[in-house]
Amino acid sequence: MEYRKLGKTGIRVSKISYGASSLGGVFHPINKKEGIHTVHAAIDHGINLIDCSPYYGDLVAEKTLGLALKDIPRDKYFLSTKVGRYWKGPAKIWDYGAKKIVNSVEQSLHNMHVDYVDFIHCHDIEFADKEQIIYESLPALHQLKESGKVRYVGLTGLPLDNFIYIIDRVQPGIVEVILSFCHYSLNDDSLMDLINYMKINKVGIINASPLSMGLLTRRGVPDWHPAGSDIVNTCKKAADYCEKQGEKIEKLAIQFATQHPDIPTTLVGTANPETIVQNIKWAEEPMNKILLNEVLNILKPIHRKTWKNS
Ligand code: NAD
Question: Ligand 1: which residue has its CA nearest to atom 32?
Answer without folding.
Answer: 19
